Amino acid sequence: MDVLICGAGIAGCALALGLHRVGIDSRLIEARSSAGPEEGAFLTIAPNGMIALAALGQPGLVEAARGAAVSGIEFRNAAGRRIARLDGTGDRARYGATSHLVRRGLLREQLLVAVREAGIAVEHGARVAAVRETPGEATVVLEDGRELGADVVVGADGIWSQVRASVWPDAPRPAYGGVIDCGGWVPIDLPDSRAQQMYFGRRAFFGFVVHRGTAYWFSNVPAPEPARGTLAKIDPAAWLERVRELHADDPAAVRRVLDAATTSLGAWPIYDLPSLATWQTARVCLVGDAAHATNPSAGQGASLCLEDAVILPRALRDSPNTAIALANFTNTRRGRVEQIVAMGRRIGTRKASSAAGSRFRDLSLPLFLRMGASATHEQYSYRVDEVDPLAHGVG
Ligand SMILES: Cc1cc2nc3c(=O)[nH]c(=O)nc-3n(C[C@H](O)[C@H](O)[C@H](O)COP(=O)(O)OP(=O)(O)OC[C@H]3O[C@@H](n4cnc5c(N)ncnc54)[C@H](O)[C@@H]3O)c2cc1C
């Protein structure tokens, strides 16, 4: 079997590794010619994502990408008072792994190293324009006019997936979450924080972690939906100024991190993907953000990509034919990913309303978080290595 994966992001690279592990050949095509190590700032891989990486045979990959163990979250209000805490100290004992914060560009770089070491071909600068399907084959049409055939085509091309647009033209469009995320990292003279520090500031939500003299920070700036592509034209220094103004009346720790910052690494409008009626045909399937992008507030987008990368290869290996394998895969994943997308949206809405700064929010947040803690426990305790796609599948 030959699988053609469109998109060499976290989902695409991880899937190629997962397929290699079960003895299925794949190739990757990627629109961009290269990506820098500072691309996309940083993200957190949750314990379930770390378990998935181990199942992909890459337990040391996050370490190679200089990831830092983080555990737990402390929430504070605009006065700096701690209003809630998610304890993460027992995560390793409970889930077999702890969360890790990792620079996105370095993670992607290490994934590509692992892909190349496995002998998997990656073609950069190849942009998918359309996907066609016949009973015997799926064909990717590239923007340069070439046509590439394969037994299975996987769209791992992110939230604005062209594979999705081509195969499911009526699929819902990503939904804007009301904030623009920006952030970066900066050297700082503060002790390690270990737990992520989150502030419901007066006008915007702010978060940071300090690890070995570096503060990793982000701010969620409430804003109307920007036209696509316009944010890239805004000077990062101007963004930083805007963020400083928004947090000018927030606690000293927030201002200290922002005073040290020299630039924002970028600005990303936050979207999630409403539930798709279907994300597989007989020979085409979606994974990662192309299928189930979540609001980053869930802290699960990358981890879900890694889980997909374990389960889809097993479904292809174990099911009687390709069409059933792809259906088994989506049946296995749908319940879990939809629950997480819904949770991410709820948390994102809370953060977007940070500006309200209300006393009601301070009072209700501990209850909201207690409910969130049990959802988080469910997410973290998912052992992808124990999931059998045939048990949830159609055949
Ligand atoms: C600001 C922000 C913070 C986040 N924080 C976290 C976090 O803390 N924890 C977490 O788990 N997740 C987080 N996420 C989500 C996480 O980054 C995504 O879930 C994950 O990167 C999705 O990976 P992907 O490979 O599916 O998509 P992408 O990373 O978008 O990769 C898609 C790839 O496909 C390529 N491509 C696109 N179109 C085409 C085409 N037509 N032809 C060929 N190639 C194409 C792209 O160039 C890209 O390389 C965050 C997201 C954002 C925006």
Tell me the strand percentage band.
Answer: 25-35%
What's the overall average pLDDT, rounded? 91
Helical fraction equals 25-40%
Report the CATH superfamily of the domain at 2-67 and 104-174 and 274-355: FAD/NAD(P)-binding domain
Unique ligands: flavin-adenine dinucleotide
Radius of gyration: 21 Å
**H/I helix tally:** 13
What does this structure look like?
- Helices cover 38% and strands 25% of the residues.
- The longest helix is centred in the last third of the chain and has 31 residues, at 322-352.
- The protein contains 13 helices and 18 strands.
- The mean pLDDT is 91.
- It has a 7-stranded mixed β-sheet with strand order 6-5-14-15-16-13-17, with helices on both faces. Strands 8-2-1-12-18 form a 5-stranded parallel β-sheet. A 3-stranded antiparallel β-sheet has the order 3-7-4.
- It has helices at residues 10-21, 47-55, 61-64, 91-95, 104-117, 162-167, 236-246, 252-260, 289-292, 301-318, 322-352, 359-380, 389-392, and strands at residues 2-6, 25-30, 42-45, 68-70, 73-76, 82-86, 99-103, 121-124, 128-134, 137-142, 147-150, 152-155, 175-187, 196-200, 205-211, 214-222, 267-272, 284-286.
- It has a domain at 2-67 and 104-174 and 274-355: FAD/NAD(P)-binding domain, CATH 3.50.50.
- It is α/β, with parallel strands linked by helices and 395 residues long.
- The protein starts with a strand and ends with a helix.
- The radius of gyration is 21 Å and the shape is globular.
- A hairpin with a 5-residue loop joins β5 and β6.
- Flavin-adenine dinucleotide binds next to α1, β2, β3, α9 and α10.
